[in-house]
Amino acid sequence: MSAVASARQILTRLHEVMAGRTHAQHKLDRVVDIIADALTSEVCSIYLLREGALELYATRGLNPEAVHVTRMAVGEGLTGTIAKNIETLNLAEARAHPDFLYRPETGEEKYHSFAGVPIVYRERAVGVLCVQHVEPRRYEDVEIEALQTTAMILSELIAHKELVDGENAFDLGEASTETEILEGLTLVKGLAAGAAVFHQPRIEIDQVVAEDVEAERQRVYRAFDKMRDQIDAMAKEPEFGKGGEHVEVLETYKMFAYDEGWSRRINEAIDSGLTAEAAIERVQQRTRMRMREIDDPLLADRMHDLEDLSNRLLRIVSGQLGTAASQGLRRDTILIARNLGPAELLEYDRRRLKGVVLEEGSLTAHVVIVARAMGIPVLGRVHGINSKVSEGDEILVDADKGTVTLRPSQPMWDAFDARFAKTREKQAAYAELRDVEPFTRDGTRITVMINAGLRDDVSALQLTGADGIGLFRTEFQFLVSSTLPQRERQMRLYRDVLDAADGKKVIFRTVDIGGDKAVPYLDNNTAERDENPAMGWRALRLSLEREGLLKVQARALLEAAAGRQLSVMFPMVSEPWEFDAAKEIFEDQAEFLRERRRQMPDSIEYGCMLEVPSLAEVLDLLLPKVSFVSVGTNDLTQFLFAADRANPKLAERYDWLSPSILRFLDRVSKAMVGSKVRLGICGEMGGRRLEALALMGLGYTRFSITPAAVGPIKELVRKVYLPDLTKHMQRLLLNPPADMRAALTEWAEANDIELD
């Protein structure tokens, strides 16, 4: 018998049972009989969630006296595992599974084969439907699909309380009220509290059983047509004009969108009596089960593509296409998403958006760069967050410690508020330093600037009293755009930034895209894709190859800075000739503008990032050419240690206070002595108090850091007596202790320098 016939037979007989006037337990007993007969199975059992545990509500084949007696926790035994993971199990030999648990009161010792599917309501498992057989065998695909269809029907019947009575009422998958703490990967540090809001609101399938099968079929046909039109339109967009990984994804989408097998399976599910939404979900469940069985990473990726496409189809057929941003945030919010793009993040109200929690996410994702600039804490790789939180749940995000607390208790709120209060007290103290120049106790002026990348970031200059913008990341405009930003658009941004800076220095870093900051409209051919993007064809390397890109940016910067000073910094310079080539492009564009009698900047100064270690070996050749050098500690660290900072196993392995890094930085600082070139630090390292202390001891007096770090660093500077610190750092570098961080912390405490 086919899956369609089995499901249709079950559905027809279930309707007959529901039409009867017998009590709920009798109906459940009839349901297991119907399923067992349809699948020719010796055992069929239904477990439902009641008071937090799975309880045997009905069975055919097991000991009837075990009904309402046998109970197991979610996650306990095979049945509990199905409920916990919301997954299907199909086992030829149940005892061989590591989660097998024998319950003697059921009398199930003679049965070998086992298959079970979750009964899901509002994305939570509220029960499990199981079948068993004496002979060891795996159930056929058509039998599993019939079980999945039946479980969906049971979910709706249970939701409408047609299979339970008041005496044995059970949990309908209502939102959990229990506190739960989940761990994740810190992507952007900080504390945040608010109500959970899903980036893409959940689609709840309220009606599973179709009233008109043909009408449901036509709804799916129309949804397929619309989805295919969307994908075809995507292929015509400018960002898909060149090769790249996105093209490969698009081709996979097109393959699935026009795949007759996929649409046929959805139609078969409709034939069995399901609505269009339920049919898509039924086929999607099958896909998820297949995904868990696939070892081939490439094939698994393709199955994930099908999962994404199924979600798109489901949203189309249900008419739910928008995100939470379009609806507006009504209160302090923690945004929940599987993944998020930078443009999507920027759509949200920054006054209400307090934090982001991602099911996936990586340290190098574009959204992380933007979130850091916006000052929004982000926690990634929080597995299961989508199924464990409900819309509106209160959430505490501690991205410093890498945890998210769902539905916190009052003591947890109190402790969190205390930390927040302490943070606010410190922020108030830092705010009082806004107009205070940061001099050390011996009278050395330390320059404290901010990193920025958005037009709104410039307001932090006034709020923090920073000396200027030591790094304006021009690539943000490129990352959030679907097409290459035109010269006029770039010029407007740069001019607005200079206007808002109101005379304070702004150093514009030329665009750093490519590699791990890929944009679709500039992707290399798929065959040429970097094995290691962070050290690949990116930043200045890409800009020099695509000379038109740098020419347009040069023109935009020169015109925007008319009548003012222009400071330009080139990223990822490996050798002096690269700096020369980039500067020549700017000088050519300047000459072009002069010939046309355009107003020019009053002065132009050029500098570069020192983030590639090779550049340190030729500083004697570079220094006569530049006005300033900024050490980029983020990339420098991964290049020195050959450690990809996007790899979670390596992200925290190498310490910024390692003797290797400190000695390297010391050598760079000493090489600059006697030159007129300004030396600065640009990166997260300079914004941490202990690390900044070490850097000052190495001779670094210019910092470009996140706006939030300006106050803490200015306060630190005023407590330092630089001659003593310099001598101590040289002693530590000469004979490094086993724990440099501990040694430097001890010195700071001995000199009454707070580090928290």
TrEMBL record:
<dbReference type="InterPro" id="IPR008279">
    <property type="entry name" value="PEP-util_enz_mobile_dom"/>
</dbReference>
<dbReference type="InterPro" id="IPR029016">
    <property type="entry name" value="GAF-like_dom_sf"/>
</dbReference>
<feature type="domain" description="GAF">
    <location>
        <begin position="23"/>
        <end position="168"/>
    </location>
</feature>
<keyword id="KW-0479">Metal-binding</keyword>
<keyword id="KW-0460">Magnesium</keyword>
<dbReference type="Pfam" id="PF02896">
    <property type="entry name" value="PEP-utilizers_C"/>
</dbReference>
<dbReference type="Pfam" id="PF05524">
    <property type="entry name" value="PEP-utilisers_N"/>
</dbReference>
<dbReference type="InterPro" id="IPR023151">
    <property type="entry name" value="PEP_util_CS"/>
</dbReference>
<dbReference type="GO" id="GO:0005737">
    <property type="term" value="C:cytoplasm"/>
</dbReference>
<keyword id="KW-0808">Transferase</keyword>
<comment type="similarity">
    <text>Belongs to the PEP-utilizing enzyme family.</text>
</comment>
<keyword id="KW-0418">Kinase</keyword>
<dbReference type="GO" id="GO:0046872">
    <property type="term" value="F:metal ion binding"/>
</dbReference>
<dbReference type="GO" id="GO:0016301">
    <property type="term" value="F:kinase activity"/>
</dbReference>
<keyword id="KW-0762">Sugar transport</keyword>
<dbReference type="InterPro" id="IPR006318">
    <property type="entry name" value="PTS_EI-like"/>
</dbReference>
<dbReference type="InterPro" id="IPR003018">
    <property type="entry name" value="GAF"/>
</dbReference>
<keyword id="KW-0813">Transport</keyword>
<dbReference type="InterPro" id="IPR008731">
    <property type="entry name" value="PTS_EIN"/>
</dbReference>
<dbReference type="InterPro" id="IPR015813">
    <property type="entry name" value="Pyrv/PenolPyrv_kinase-like_dom"/>
</dbReference>
<dbReference type="Pfam" id="PF00391">
    <property type="entry name" value="PEP-utilizers"/>
</dbReference>
<dbReference type="InterPro" id="IPR050499">
    <property type="entry name" value="PEP-utilizing_PTS_enzyme"/>
</dbReference>
<dbReference type="Pfam" id="PF01590">
    <property type="entry name" value="GAF"/>
</dbReference>
<dbReference type="InterPro" id="IPR036637">
    <property type="entry name" value="Phosphohistidine_dom_sf"/>
</dbReference>
<dbReference type="InterPro" id="IPR040442">
    <property type="entry name" value="Pyrv_kinase-like_dom_sf"/>
</dbReference>
<dbReference type="InterPro" id="IPR036618">
    <property type="entry name" value="PtsI_HPr-bd_sf"/>
</dbReference>
<protein>
    <recommendedName>
        <fullName>phosphoenolpyruvate--protein phosphotransferase</fullName>
        <ecNumber>2.7.3.9</ecNumber>
    </recommendedName>
</protein>
<dbReference type="InterPro" id="IPR000121">
    <property type="entry name" value="PEP_util_C"/>
</dbReference>
<keyword id="KW-0598">Phosphotransferase system</keyword>
<dbReference type="GO" id="GO:0009401">
    <property type="term" value="P:phosphoenolpyruvate-dependent sugar phosphotransferase system"/>
</dbReference>
<keyword id="KW-0963">Cytoplasm</keyword>
<dbReference type="GO" id="GO:0008965">
    <property type="term" value="F:phosphoenolpyruvate-protein phosphotransferase activity"/>
</dbReference>
<keyword id="KW-0670">Pyruvate</keyword>
